[in-house]
Each structure stands twice: as C-alpha cells, then as structure tokens.
Target: Adenine deaminase
Amino acid sequence: MTTPDSPLAAWLRGLPKAELHLHIEGTLEPEMVFALADKHRVPLAYASVDALRRAYDFDDLQSFLDLYYAGADVLRDEVDFHAMTAAYLRRAAADGVVHVEIFFDPQTHTARGIDIGTVIGGIHRALVEGERELGISHRLILCFLRHLSEAEAEATLDAALPYRTLIAGVGLDSSERGHPPQKFARVFARAASLGFKRVAHAGEEGPAAYIRDAIDVLDVCRIDHGVRCDEDPALVAQLAATRMPLTVCPLSNTKLKVYAQMQQHNIGRLLRAGLCVTVNSDDPAYFGGYVVDNYLAIADALSLSRAELAQLARQSFEASWLDDAVRQQWIARIDAYVAAT
Ligand code: HPA
Ligand SMILES: [Zn+2]
Model:
C-alpha cells in the first residue's frame, strides 16, 4: 500500500500536473462548512465535523449530490467563495499542481438569492492571487446543472455575460441519467457562438451514447469522466484516434460506486489503448483525496509504472486550454523531471 509519505508520493508531488476536473464547491472541507455555518448562523443537520465526514458514505451520484448541494448552502458572501478557492489552491500547490481549470455551479447559489457576481468575484480574486503567490495558472468553467431546464441554463448564461472575460468555457454537471446532452443543445450552441469552449460530464453513470452525443451534439473539446466509453469499442477507437481527452476521477468513481474496487478501474487500460486520459480529484473534500491521492490510488491498484504516471501528467497539459507554447514547456519540464529522477 502506497502512503502519502512514501517515495512514490514525494515523486508524484514533484511531477508538474494540471487539474482539469475540479468542482470548487466540492473542495469545501467539513471544517470550513462548520466555520461558515457559524459565521452566518446557518443550522446544520450534523452535530460535529466528524459526524459530517462520517456521512460521506455514498451509494451513487445522487446520494453525493444531495450532500454536496446541502454543504454549499453555507457559502453566502464574496469572502466565503474567496476563502474556499484559496484553500483549494494552497492544497493543490502542495500536490505539485501548476495549472487548474475549475468548475463552478452558479445555479446552486443564484437559486438561494446570491448574485452571480458575488460567486465569480470571490473565486476569481483567489485565482488571481493564486497565480501571483503560488504560480498556479487558471481557467474558469461555468457549469449548467443538467437536472434543471435548458431555459434556466440560458438565463444563467445571460447572467454570466457581464463576466464573460473571466470565464473560459461552459460545462454540464449534476444528475446524469435521464438528462442527455441533447437537452442542452441550444444553450451550448449559443455558448459556442459567444466564444466559450465546451466540456460536459458524460459516461460517469450515464451510457456511452451520452459521450457520443456530447461530442456530436454539444461539440465539446473534452469529456468529463467518460469511463463508460468502454461499453462501445468503436467509441474507444474514435477517442484514441482523435485524442479526445477524458478527465477521469478515480477516487470519485469508487466512492460513487461506478466501480466496486479500484482494481476494476479502466484508466490503465484506456491509457495503454492510446486515449488522452487525465487524473483529477472531482470533489476532493467529499471523495477522500486530492490529485496526488488519486494518482497514488491508481498506481497502487493498477500497478502503473512511473513512465505511465508521467504520461498521465503530460496528458493533463495536452488536454488543457493553456497556449500551445506553454503546454509544450510543461511537457518538456516533465521529460526533464523524469530523466533526472
Ligand atoms: O462527479 C460529478 N458528476 C456530476 N455532477 C457533479 N457535481 C459535482 N461533482 C459531480
Ligand atoms: Zn465532476
């Protein structure tokens, strides 16, 4: 068993990495939930930090989402959004993350009467500070909640337009089954015409057909999760041939019972089949680990070599929205690190 103080963990922390699948609301640790509940006098359903953490025992995606949306209720002002984002960036820096592309869910907050400018303002201020103080570059991705209507997604896009220079792309998250990509075809087309890049969660709990539809109907440039692609061998071949990135989240997949055990995870097989798979933490406060914990979990369970782990890190930059020259610089840094260690 590989531990966080093992030589492999230290080596992984030294490996430059990008994190591309991270819900900022999913970084809200129980300690911060309690601190913010206290600050705003919000009653909580749990008596202690430990009791809340013990509740993080999920059956599936929906059982997680119910707690995740409840936890986000303590975020009330700009300072809260800043504190949450700053804490994540400090933790990511300790893991050797040098670039982040993070999701936020504006509808979770606007539905509670919080202005979208408060949400974006706090997150963006922390990202700018993180770049200056920690050297972490960033992109911000606005996610639409797929259990809500397309009309509500359209209204969210409208509300975000005054902040459009701060937002690189749009995504699609929340309950997947029964909410296919087609439901959001028009709002994604409008986002494209406005110059936003597109990503979507697909093939986490939903079928492989949702991955095809995200590509064909929403014109996405990455798939978030995508692990159920292996139910469709022709799709796997297409993903390999086109180098369509998958932002895979191993600890999330075992916590939400997509796989009963990490040994069953397909990321190693997909990597060896030539897919641009990447390693990410999704909602680290809820799933028991940040990005290095995710690398360690698959290294251990799937017996991945250091060469394979380095390739996963290279692919995190290949899949990123960094300028090509910057991407190539980070990949060269990885090559140099591997040669020197
Ligand atoms: O893993 C996820 N899937 C879908 N929606 C989400 N919202 C936060 N995390 C997730
Ligand atoms: Zn996710």
Q: What stands out?
A: The two ends are 22 Å apart (CA to CA).
